[in-house]
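Priority: medium. Attachment 1 of 2:
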């Protein structure tokens, strides 16, 4: 590893007062104190007993999230496709570029408020667009070994990290052993991902009476939370902080979907074309939209639900009920109001904090 990078990495490790000095090679399981947003709906999410959050573990997880040695040719990291300045999405790309510029057929999802998935989704199909993994720890390994993403294998990853002169010390601090395993890699990155919490948008500030909503935002909120827009059935009513139901739906993108979604995992015909409901938070930063990134703008998304969805056997009933009317039939003013409400869900403080 180049000296300049090594020095920079060391400075990053030492940057916070809470950080454990790198010279200290002992196990230091100091609990990491999560800072939950202010508000009555932000309840604590479950943290696995076998992977508690610690200062050293989160610190290590952040370094690994940014570590290109996790890829086969040391060219990309998790951060390459989940960029903090875009709320941990991929900066406007429809499809991320993996190793050797290979592309898949799904848009890289944004990463925030992930810990609550394991609280509110009880099916075991929780992560990735098709619910292919049931826990954050399982999810972490997927991109590392995927042949069109990081295209590595677990043995090579462990070998490279084990033979680095920094990582064994950091694993010792975080987990009490300098013998690195892929399971510990997954635990560390998962710890870091659980700390990515977004809940300080203009909407949240209005909920706390720190600002006043515009009239357009208020009207858009009414459209969102009533049968007028029917958004709340899949994205949660206003008593929820997350703007997703953490579940899977066929939202009418195609009559016959080339990507079978949840059906690929379950084999249940009723799951064909169903994909995970994304949070509506941070939409300003996370374009393009849908599992395949087909819509470049939020206006396109609104127009799709207004008049463009397709019928199919597994179409969600809260969408199919609008078929007789040809869609939601929102007026131009109503579409603008809904847009302004959705934009108010974007948390600039979250982006600046992690940028």
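Attachment 2 of 2:
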């Amino acid at each position: 590893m180049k000296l300049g990078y090594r020095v920079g990495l060391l400075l990053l490790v030492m940057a916070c007062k809470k950080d454990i000095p790198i010279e200290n090679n002992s196990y230091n399981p100091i609990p990491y104190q999560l800072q939950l947003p202010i508000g009555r709906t932000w309840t604590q999410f479950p943290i696995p007993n076998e992977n508690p959050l610690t200062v050293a573990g989160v610190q290590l997880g952040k370094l690994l999230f940014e570590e290109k040695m996790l890829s086969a040719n040391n060219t990309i990291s998790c951060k390459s496709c989940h960029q903090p300045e875009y709320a941990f999405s991929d900066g406007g790309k429809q499809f991320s570029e993996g190793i050797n510029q290979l592309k898949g057929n799904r848009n890289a999802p944004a990463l925030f408020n992930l810990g609550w998935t394991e609280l509110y989704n009880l099916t075991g199909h929780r992560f990735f667009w098709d619910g292919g993994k049931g826990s954050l720890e399982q999810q972490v390994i997927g991109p590392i070994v995927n042949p069109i993403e990081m295209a590595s294998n677990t043995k090579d990853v462990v070998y490279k990290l084990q033979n680095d002169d920094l990582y064994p010390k950091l694993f010792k601090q975080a987990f009490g052993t300098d013998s690195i395993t892929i399971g510990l890699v997954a635990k560390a990155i998962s710890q870091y991902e659980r700390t990515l919490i977004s809940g300080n948008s203009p909407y949240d500030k209005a909920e706390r009476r720190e600002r006043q909503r515009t009239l357009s935002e208020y009207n858009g909120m009414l459209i969102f939370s009533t049968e007028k827009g029917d958004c709340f059935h899949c994205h949660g009513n206003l008593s929820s902080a997350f703007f997703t139901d953490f579940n899977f739906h066929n939202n009418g993108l195609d009559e016959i979907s080339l990507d079978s979604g949840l059906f690929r995992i379950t084999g249940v015909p009723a799951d064909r074309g169903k994909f995970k409901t994304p949070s509506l938070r941070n939409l300003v930063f996370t374009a393009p939209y849908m599992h395949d990134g087909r819509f470049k703008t939020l206006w396109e998304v609104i127009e799709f639900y207004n008049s463009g969805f397709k019928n199919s056997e597994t179409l969600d009933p809260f969408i199919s009920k609008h078929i007789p009317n040809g869609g939601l039939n929102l007026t131009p003013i109503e579409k603008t109001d809904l847009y302004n409400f959705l934009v108010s869900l974007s948390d600039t403080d979250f982006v600046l904090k992690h940028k």
